[in-house]
Amino acid sequence: MNNLRNSVIDEVVVCDTIPLSDEIKALPNVRTLTLSGMLAEAIRRISNEESISAMFEH
After folding, report:
1. pLDDT tens for residues 1-53?
2. Which whole-number Å values give the CA distances from 26 to 6, 33, 34, in the listed order?
3. pLDDT at 30
4. What is the rounded distance in angstroms from the CA atom of residue 3 to the CA atom of residue 7?
5. How many independent structural domains does the chain possess?
6. Where is the signal peptide (predicted)?
7. Cα–Cα distance between 20 and 25 in angstroms, integer?
8. CA–CA dist 42, 48 (Å, integer)
9. Radius of gyration (Cα) for the chain, nearest Å?
10. How far apart are the first and last CA of the chain?
11. Domain that holds residue 52
12. Three-state SS string across the chain, please?
């Protein structure tokens, strides 16, 4: 925790696939991105037998 708080790194980006402690969430240099939309789209594509790799073509 102190390593993140005192780091010279401007920002640490994490995803919301695992819960973060409130202490980590409160750090100003930690940003959490949600993956729910991407996971939902991947599940939809798998269910419809569509390409998942097409999601990353842009």
Report:
1. 778 788 888 999 999 999 999 999 999 999 999 999 999 999 999 999 999 99
2. 14, 15, 17
3. 94
4. 6
5. 1
6. none
7. 6
8. 10
9. 16
10. 36
11. 2-56
12. CHHHHCCCCCCEEEECCCCCCHHHHCCCCEEEECCHHHHHHHHHHHHCCCCCHHHHCC
